[in-house]
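Service request form, structural biology core

Requester: graduate student, group of Dr. S.
Request type: structure prediction, single chain
Budget code: on file
Notes: please return the result as C-alpha cells.

Sequence provided:
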Amino acid sequence: MKKKVKFRDREYIVEVLPNGEISIDGELFTADIKQGINSMYKVDVDGYTFTIEISNEDFIVDGEKTQFTIKPYIPVVGRKSSKTSKREVKISAPIPGKITKIFVKEGQKVSKDEELLILEAMKMRNRIFSPNNGKIRKIAIKENDSVEQDQLLLVIKP
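Core staff response, request fulfilled:
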C-alpha cells in the first residue's frame, strides 16, 4: 500500500513492503523500529538511528517538532491533461477499516485536495482527499461501513 507523505515541505511516495522494507520514491530502505517509553520510538534506517516521539498532535524527530501529513497515494493512469480528460476517477480504500465520516454528497462539486472522508484503521484516522477537481458521481459506502482494501469508496467525474 502506497501513501503520499509530506515531510518538511516535500512530498514522498512511501510504501511498506511485505518483507518489512520501506520504499521511498522507489528507493529501498531497511527499518528497525523499537518502542521506548510510551509514545517514543527508536528507528534505525540503514544504519542511521533517530528518535521519534508522537504526542497529541505533535510529531517530534530527534527533538525537532515536525509537520507531517499522510494522504492516500492514488496514481492517475492514462491521463494526458487534467483539463482534457473525461475519465471518471474511482477512489478505493487504501487499507481495510471503518468509514467514520463522509464530508461530501453525490452531485457535489469538489476541488483537488479537498477532504472527502475519513477511514479509521487500527485507531488511526486516514483522511481521503480528492485527487482532482470534479463532481461526486457515486458514493458506494456510508458512515460506519467496514470496508476492505481496494473496495470502491466513491467515483469522481472530472
